[in-house]
Amino acid sequence: MKFTDPCLRSEGADVILATSSDEKYPPENIIDGRSETFWTTTGMFPQEFIISFPKCVTISKLTIQCYLVQTLRIEKSVSKDPVDFEECIEKELQCKEGELQTEEFSLPEIQATYLRFIILSAFDAFVSVHRVIAEGIAEDI
Q1: In this predicted structure, what is the pLDDT of residue 107?
Q2: Residue 125's CB: how many other CB atoms inside 10 A?
């Protein structure tokens, strides 16, 4: 077992679904490890994206860096395919004009092969997600 950030492309994470896409701000930016790059939504809500892991991970804390997100729900799945999601947390975020929202979620050591992030509402017509950071352990199979 090793402690790692499983939400990095370099650790094998992938964004397998995003409800909107702009070629200048692709969803892969969420997992590149940089706060300067981001994925942006295009229009209506809810919007969502799903991060997949190459193997089951145990996560004790999630941090999301985003902008203008109002209500966020995070769900997990341990299925082989991205189905059977269970809600982990839903939270109203505070708007910080002109600066990134950095929200930390402490979790009771959830296991996941997929995480789904659903942006239910926003403070503006567009939001951006810059990074998802997880504190977790990748299970050795």
Answers
A1: 87
A2: 11
pLDDT at 70: 97
Report the pLDDT value the prediction gives residue 64, as an integer from 0 to 100.
97
Give a three-class secondary structure readout of the chain.
Answer: CEEECCCCHHHCCEEEEECCCECCECHHHHHCCCCCCCEECCCCCCEEEEEEEEEEEEEEEEEEEEECEEEEEEEEECCCCCCCCEEEEEEECCCCCCCCEEEEEEEEEEEEEEEEEEEEEECCCCCEEEEEEEEEEECCC
CA distance 105 to 92: 12
Identify the structural domains of the chain with CATH numbers, from first to last.
2-138 (2.60.120.260)
Mean pLDDT along residues 111-127: 96
The whole-angstrom separation of Cα 48 and Cα 54 is 20
Rounded to 5 degrees, φ, ψ at 11 are: -95, 5
